[in-house]
Amino acid sequence: MTRSVLLFLLVISFAIPSSARVYEYQLNCDLGKGNAQNIRAGDFNIALTPENHLCHVAVVGRSKKPVFEYTSAGIQVFAGKDFTGDGKPDAIIQADDINPYRLFVVSLGSHPGLVKTIENGYGFWLQNDCDDKRRRIWTADAAFQEDKELVNVVYHHDLMVPEIALELRGTKLVDATPKCKGYFDEQVRLVRSSLTNSDISGFRAEKIADEFHRGEVKGYILKIVFAYLYSGRENEAHQMLSEMWPKKDIDRIWNWIIAKRSEGTLRQAMPSAE
Questions:
Q1: CA 171, 265, 146 angle in degrees (round to 5)?
Q2: d(Cα 241, Cα 226) in Å, to the nearest integer?
Q3: Which terminus of the chain, N or C, has fewer Cβ atoms within 10 Å?
Q4: Which sequence spans correspond to the domains of the chain?
Q5: Is 104 left (phi over 0), alpha (psi -120 to 50) or beta?
């Protein structure tokens, strides 16, 4: 199972609100296994073909010439919905190149072809959510991937990595995470329900003896802080940290969080104009 699929399964099992709709990739190929697949989207045919332990995708229009094609160890395709905001359908093609994963946004409109390439250490999923129910591209901030600060938080530490919502405005990639406050508020509610006041006071006083439980509490607290910070509420994020984290370590951990965010996945995106 690829890292992108594992992360996606972990996320949806943990905190995606019931009101959010996740779009499953319609075509899937892994290591060249299985049969050839195809899907029609308007005037375009998208073919996904296994080739010598690899997967090849081709987007072909009326001219019968590919407007986009790519080969990778694994490929997933979703097509037929508008992701760029131009009212025309697009194809979302994820390539499991692993380091990094690549997501290609291909227009199926009057000017077909590659619109945007997004790269990240984690894979991507597609979701209909947040303020206006617009379809968005979701991933997790790869700056935190395998960071030693998170390794001891829980068994699946990837679950605690900050999530990011991205949208396209034409060819421009925009951080849409601040538009999703309700989504992250639900995350906070779910995570907070897993924490007792005793957990928080014990962690803050550095008196949780059990190493696994201490890491679990640490991860939940960081998840709450990430949810507020990435959804555009920096003051609330810092306040949560101040109320739950060991006092002598607050400045260090806050500086670590801010530094990681600045060097992470959002470097590819413009800030959201709420």
A1: 155
A2: 10
A3: N
A4: 1-20+129-267, 23-128
A5: beta
Please name every residue paired with 135 in a beta bridge, in sequence order, or none if there are none.
128
DSSP 162: P
Smallest Cα–Cα separation from 272: which of 186, 168, 199?
Answer: 168
User: Mind listing the pLDDT tens digit of every residue in the chain (274 residues)?
Assistant: 444 444 444 444 445 554 567 789 999 999 989 899 999 998 999 999 998 899 999 999 988 899 999 999 999 999 988 888 888 899 999 999 877 899 999 999 888 999 999 999 999 999 876 766 678 899 999 999 888 888 777 655 667 899 999 999 888 999 999 999 998 999 999 999 999 999 999 999 999 999 999 999 999 999 999 999 999 999 999 999 999 999 999 999 999 999 999 999 999 998 876 5
The residues, ordered by sequence, that sit 6+ positions from 121 with a Cβ below 8 Å of its Cβ are 99, 100, 101, 142, 145, 265
Place of tokens 């131009």: 86
CA distance 265 to 175: 10
In the sheet where 135-140 sits, what is the strand order?
21-23, 125-128, 135-140, 163-169, 172-175
Cα dihedral sign, 68-57-21-136? negative
> Does residue 41 contact residue 161 with C-beta atoms inside 8 Å?
no
Q: What tokens were used for 30?
A: 């892994």
Question: Is it true that the peptide bond before 100 is cis, omega within 30 degrees of 0?
Answer: yes
Strand positions, DSSP E, the chain: 21-23, 27-30, 37-41, 44-51, 54-60, 66-72, 74-81, 90-95, 101-107, 113-120, 125-128, 135-140, 163-169, 172-175
Contact call for residues 219 and 147 (beta carbons, < 8 A): no
Per the listing, tokens 């209909």 go with 128
pTM of the model: 0.87
